[in-house]
Specification:
The protein is of the alpha/beta class. The chain has eleven helices and 16 strands. The structure holds zinc ion. The site of zinc ion has 6 residues, from loops.
Length: 374
């Protein structure tokens, strides 16, 4: 076992106390000391320090049970903020989260992607104006995470994407010098919205069903990048090799051809949430179309389940909308799986829909802030 020196122990204690209060919401010093098995003076010193740093606030006194009443503390949510921006071909989604990872603002605008200066200046200005409109003190912003549809180079200087028709390598733009920025693949960014909000789930596969289809493989709480960085590109798994449908990568019958939110929009001629509304209303043809969609989704889930034998989270834009149809997916899986119909694997839906990638990209900086506390 690695032995920590006294300052490392103090740092670890401080982070675990902050994480504990983030989870419990409101607590007292004796409660922290008991649950984290720390001495009272250690807890008292660290809590006072967090109060001084403005990361905690007192909320009153605990109800008396005869002895001395203890003060109650909670996270000062607005002490720290982070921004997340999801850039896709035709839209930009902006998200601002607080220290608790809660969304305090989200906005979606229509803007055609371009790699020129005007585009990035527009995005940068929109982000700053939005933060101002929501009364965010710029000094509390810890970073800006940017989700992109593409494979980002390890040194963060460029990315390969289908967002421009010629699919060339695009230089990552400098959004702001004011804050640290990080570019993330959209599948990884969306997956992060689950990683940070649910620390209990350490192993799972995230299937992102947005305009693009992708995802990430999480092992021991960490996203597995793979040798070239494209692990979890489930959109390019071939589902129907004989089909003539061509994926944007050039391949035939790939999962993206059937499971992108664009397919639902093409069918209904409107936004994807209208598709689900009409489906629920029983509009003609919707049920049959969606049944084929679920067949394809089940086939992808089946393949992922066979490869990883782990829980699967259905996320991205469509994730939250699929919740009522989980029993249908389950039934289809039962029919398809002749080997392991009694599997322990859970299939659930992500907590965030449209804003998943933005939340994940922003949460990266909240997590970074917490783990850099000394
Ligand atoms: Zn493909």
């Amino acid at each position: 076992m690695v032995k920590l020196n006294s300052s490392e122990v103090r740092k670890a204690n401080k982070q675990s106390i902050l994480r504990y209060i983030l989870q419990t919401g409101e607590c007292t010093k004796p409660q922290i000391a008991m649950d984290l098995r720390l001495s009272s003076p250690t807890v008292s010193f660290i809590v006072d320090e967090l109060l001084e740093q403005g990361l905690l606030e007192t909320t009153g006194m605990q109800a008396s049970s005869g002895g001395r009443r203890a003060a109650k503390y909670q996270i000062c949510k607005d002490a720290v903020h982070a921004c997340g921006i999801e850039i896709s071909r035709g839209h930009v989604i902006f998200v601002i989260v607080n220290l608790c990872g809660e969304i305090i603002a989200t906005e979606r605008i229509r803007k055609e992607f371009s790699d020129d200066r005007e585009y990035i200046q527009y995005i940068a200005k929109y982000r700053a104006d939005m933060a101002e409109r929501f009364g965010i003190d710029p000094a509390t912003v810890t970073g800006v995470g940017i989700s992109l549809q593409g494979l980002i180079s390890p040194d963060q200087t460029s990315f390969k994407s289908h967002m421009l028709d010629d699919r060339r390598v695009i230089a990552t733009p400098t959004l702001t010098d004011e804050y640290p920025c990080l570019f993330l693949n959209d599948g990884n960014a969306s997956c992060m919205s689950e990683c940070y909000s649910n620390k209990a789930e350490n192993d799972f596969v995230y299937l992102m069903l947005s305009r693009t289809v992708g995802g990430a493989i999480v092992h021991d709480g960490e996203i597995q990048a793979g040798k070239d960085g494209f692990a979890g590109e489930f959109g390019h798994v071939c589902l129907h090799p004989e089909d003539d449908k061509v994926c944007y990568c050039g391949g035939k019958g790939h999962a993206w051809c059937y499971l992108s939110s664009d397919r639902l929009e093409e069918f209904c001629g409107s936004v994807y949430w209208d598709f689900f509304k009409k489906l629920e209303e029983g509009e003609e043809g919707y049920c049959e179309f969606f049944d084929r969609f679920l067949d394809d989704l089940t086939l992808l889930i089946y393949n992922v389940r066979m490869m990883y034998n782990t829980d699967i989270v259905l996320g991205g834009y469509l994730g939250t909308y699929l919740k009522p149809y989980l029993p249908d997916i389950d039934r289809k899986l039962q029919k398809m799986d002749h080997l392991y119909p009694e599997t322990q694997i859970k299939i659930t839906c992500g907590k965030h829909g449209l804003e998943a990638a933005g939340v994940g990209a922003a949460n990266y900086f909240i997590e970074k802030f917490i783990s850099s506390l000394v």
